[in-house]
Amino acid sequence: MVDIQIATFLLLGVVGVAAQQVGTYIPENHPLLATQSCTASGGCTTSSSKIVLDANRRWIHSTLGTTSCLTANGWDPTLCPDGITCANYCALDGVSYSSTYGITTSGSALRLQFVTGTNIGSRVFLMADDTHYRTFQLLNQELAFDVDVSKLPCGLNGALYFVAMDADGGKSKYPGNRAGAKYGTGYCDSQCPRDVQFINGQANVQGWNATSATTGTGSYGSCCTELDIWEANSNAAALTPHTCTNNAQTRCSGSNCTSNTGFCDADGCDFNSFRLGNTTFLGAGMSVDTTKTFTVVTQFITSDNTSTGNLTEIRRFYVQNGNVIPNSVVNVTGIGAVNSITDPFCSQQKKAFIETNYFAQHGGLAQLGQALRTGMVLAFSISDDPANHMLWLDSNFPPSANPAVPGVARGMCSITSGNPADVGILNPSPYVSFLNIKFGSIGTTFRPA
Q: In sequence order, which residues have a C-beta less than 8 Å from that of residue 202 and are 6 or more positions away?
């Protein structure tokens, strides 16, 4: 019947410019999330923001009915013989945030549940209004938020990060995209992910290798500069900037999608306290006690302390129980005793860990600064890691390497931990909560006791 319906549709001339359409079976109601902007003279002002679920997590179905465009065998060959046709015949629908995905908000608090029914993990973006993401220009600014990672075990990652997505999700740039930011389109990051189902207004049909009824990888990837403010669980945390030669969202193919040597620096320049020689800084009962909620503050320092200067440093500190906790100081031979990210730090770190400095090759902090000046979108996610079990964050990586070698040990977790088949079973109801998100002038977003 689908073939007949499509033929009728074409004869009537209904399908033309309309593409990557919007479904009508489930209303799309964006949950509210309060945030604050702060100034030295005016204090902090609360605004009512919203969040939206990433398009990749949504039901994609025929515009003519409920036939799913993606199946366990890949894209439906009738609806999706190619990327453009697929965008014409397939629609993104609304979602039930709490009951289906375990995503809830209350005032200034966002909670992401890892397992909800059959759903695993989620990713959402902060919105400026119902059709645009909120973009942040953070040069000579700071960002603060409270976080609860007490229920996040080894192998999970509760992340807060920025990506250089288009504010409208690519709707105005790509005629094939009718859904836009309202339905969470336009995702990109420095890994140039090839699992993104729609890129540049077209379905990622070519070369699609299905891994489930809703997941797989295609020939194209979606690249952009990424700033991982917070990737963490209760055992480890990392602050990692990544750069791309073209900061903005860009579709890649072939070698341009290759990690580090393509458009983007996939490895980044990470500051993980455990990896950098302080093994008692963050964790249960440690200097930053992950059994309790704490505040994470990140500052973006420029060459002339203005919003027009070049980004030269990313600083980090924490606040817990009213006490300001400076970031840990590096204790690794060959790296200066510093506690912030600079280009010299990245160069020394890569040399000490015998790694190629792809971060510098893709422009370093100056390139990242350009993205921060233009504006980046704030994302929140909770995820596991089928490929590497999150060992790159919280254990020894590569797992076969000697942990005594500098840079190998990244956290206290066992190299046998993090198997997605075990994480949800061994640790009932994992979740992460982000609260009290504030941004503004340096020194305005936190108040120590």
A: 20, 83, 84, 86, 87, 174, 176
